Amino acid sequence: CWIEWFINLEGKEYFCDVDEEYILDRFNLTNLPLEVPHYHKALDLITDRLPNTPMSDELRGQIEQSAIHLYGLIHARYIITARGLVKMLEKYKRGDFGVCPRVYCSQHSLLPVGITDQPNVKGVKLYCSRCEDVYNPKSKKHALVDGAYFGSSFPHMLFQVYPTLKPAPSEQRYVPRIFGFKIHAIAELHRWQADQREEQKKRLGIASDS
């Protein structure tokens, strides 16, 4: 099974298996024939219907790349359907996408997201629903996956459908300190001391340093 082979490749762990029934419904593939070279052969390869006819290694390589691209674009549509959300939710609960690197998010699970829906623009990022920020994947192989294969709406759609899973925003913030004092407080103290020195100089009739 091509889909099972693909999602088990190293670096492809973020993908779920798209139901063949969904792939074979032409309505779900609207406009994709215009975006993918060798579209029909790529679709046949994904659905294990590609005839075992002789072809050049170059053509086969092109069809395989088109199949990966086509599956990615279908995947982005599928994961915002009811069935797709359930599958991605299972992966989210297992922590398949990793945890937030931010200390105050306490290893909250991440979700894949695209910065843009346009293919070949940005790699996939990881969204934390606690701090509401995005991060680069740790693995270079994950970072090379196109963000358009997950789309910009997926994590937000998931929490619209399952609102009880969305955590309260993290209110903890790191506060820079020097010897226990907040940096902005130290800066204010220095400004106050400088102002006091200037006032004293004026009272004593001493010219200002400036």
Walk me through what this model shows:
The chain has 210 residues and is mainly alpha-helical. Helices cover 43% and strands 7% of the residues. It has 9 helices and 5 strands. The strands form 2 sheets. It has a 3-stranded antiparallel sheet, with no helix packed on it. A hairpin with a 2-residue loop joins strand 4 (177-178) and strand 5 (181-182). Helix 4 packs across helix 5 (57-78). The longest helix is centred in the first third of the chain and has 22 residues, at 57-78.
CA-based gyration radius: 26 Å
Order of helices and strands: HHHHHHEEEHHEEH
Shape: elongated
pLDDT averaged over residues: 92
The chain-level structural class is mainly alpha
Strand content: 5-15%
Give the helix tally: 9
Low-pLDDT segments: none
Main beta-sheet annotation:
3 strands, antiparallel
Task: Summarize, please.
With 210 residues, the protein is mostly helical. The chain has helices at residues 2-7, 20-23, 32-35, 39-46, 57-78, 82-94, 140-143, 154-161, 183-204; strands at residues 110-113, 125-128, 133-135, 177-178, 181-182. It is elongated.
Please render the helix and strand layout as text:
Layout: H1 2-7, H2 20-23, H3 32-35, H4 39-46, H5 57-78, H6 82-94, E1 110-113, E2 125-128, E3 133-135, H7 140-143, H8 154-161, E4 177-178, E5 181-182, H9 183-204
Helix pairs in contact: 4-5
